[in-house]
């Protein structure tokens, strides 16, 4: 019984180390490419930290459990905002007032509204999947256009180097940091979730409770680890960009791809409660994006508390 506890601890350490490597790699890649760290975090970092959700959702459909695929994505998106931004803020204030994320935030809200509208069709099939993947393609095209414009602007007005960036860091080390981070995050999350499940079952916790809590939280652990390290390194753009990008990727890419593996029916509970909680959590970011508020420790308590309240309602 000691081994699961040891492996849980090892998984947590691996998550933190991999998150740190991913943030370092992303910041240095943004410096070398001449693009904002926000764009790197919206693409490479966000897609990498969403890998567990993709694997679990596809496997759930193959295992004839499509409801788990949808619940995983919706639950993870709610956890990404309330938990992934709340917990790091308890450790250090995230200076989101310095971030220009209005455009990407609007895209995330648009993706959420599109996702909810398609959910009211009653099923995510290949038609809905095609619409979602088309939305993903437009998002990526817009990100690359922004990156190109930023590089052109930097030629005439070089930017100040971001904290944690090393202009002399060779490309092979940047790519190694990214690969170690992207490989270590899902591995650490898997170790932590599997062994936490063993511990929970030992104490008589039901499979339903494990699924509603450990699976949704577990697949958000890569985002949490990355955001914690970004907050401690004062890289608020990486932290916020990771959450926004990951949420868009979850909605557009994961369900978009999974719907081609098999149809995903939408339960009435999602239409009346869970989807609206997800959208409400997204709207909560509005003052940090539009009013230049920082995510302070007080907000960390509020966001984390709201997530605990959501779990209590779901499990009641």
UniProtKB/TrEMBL annotation:
Gene3D superfamilies: NCX, central ion-binding region. It is found in: Membrane. The keyword Transmembrane helix applies. It is a multi-pass membrane protein. It comes from the Bacteria. Signal peptide: none annotated. InterPro entries: K/Na/Ca-exchanger, NaCa_Exmemb, NCX_ion-bd_dom_sf. Residues 5-140, 175-315 form the Sodium/calcium exchanger membrane region domain. The chain crosses the membrane at residues 35-56, 68-91, 111-141, 171-189, 244-264, 270-291, 298-315. The keyword NADP does not apply. Keywords: Membrane, Transmembrane, Transmembrane helix. This is Calcium/sodium antiporter. It comes from Roseobacter sinensis.
């Amino acid at each position: 019984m000691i081994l699961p506890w040891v492996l849980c601890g090892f998984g947590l350490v691996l998550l933190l180390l991999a998150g740190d490597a991913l943030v370092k790699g992303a910041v240095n890649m943004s410096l070398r490419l001449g693009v904002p760290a926000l764009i790197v975090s919206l693409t490479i970092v966000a897609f990498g930290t969403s890998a567990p959700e993709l694997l679990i959702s596809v496997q759930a459909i193959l295992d004839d459990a499509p409801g788990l695929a949808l619940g995983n994505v919706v639950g993870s998106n709610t956890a990404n905002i309330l938990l992934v931004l709340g917990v790091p803020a308890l450790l250090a204030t995230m200076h989101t007032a310095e971030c220009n994320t209005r455009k990407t935030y609007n895209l995330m809200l648009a993706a959420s509204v599109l996702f909810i509208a398609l959910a009211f069709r009653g099923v995510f099939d290949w038609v809905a999947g095609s619409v979602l993947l088309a939305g993903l393609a437009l998002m990526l095209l817009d990100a690359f256009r922004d990156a190109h414009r930023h590089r052109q602007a930097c030629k005439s007005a070089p930017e100040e180097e971001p904290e944690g960036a090393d202009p002399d860091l060779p490309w092979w080390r940047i790519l190694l940091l990214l690969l170690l981070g992207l490989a270590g995050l899902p591995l650490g999350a898997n170790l932590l979730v599997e062994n936490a499940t063993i511990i929970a079952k030992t104490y008589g916790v039901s499979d339903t409770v494990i699924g509603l809590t450990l699976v949704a939280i577990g697949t958000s652990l890569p985002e949490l680890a990355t955001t914690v390290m970004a907050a401690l390194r004062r890289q608020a753009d990486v932290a916020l960009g990771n959450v926004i990008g990951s949420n868009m990727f979850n909605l557009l890419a994961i369900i978009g791809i999974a719907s081609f593996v098999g149809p995903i029916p939408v339960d009435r509970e999602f239409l009346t409660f869970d989807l609206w909680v997800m959208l409400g959590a997204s709207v909560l970011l509005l003052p940090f994006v539009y009013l230049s508020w920082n995510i302070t420790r007080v907000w960390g308590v509020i966001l984390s508390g709201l997530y605990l309240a959501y779990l209590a309602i779901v499990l009641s």
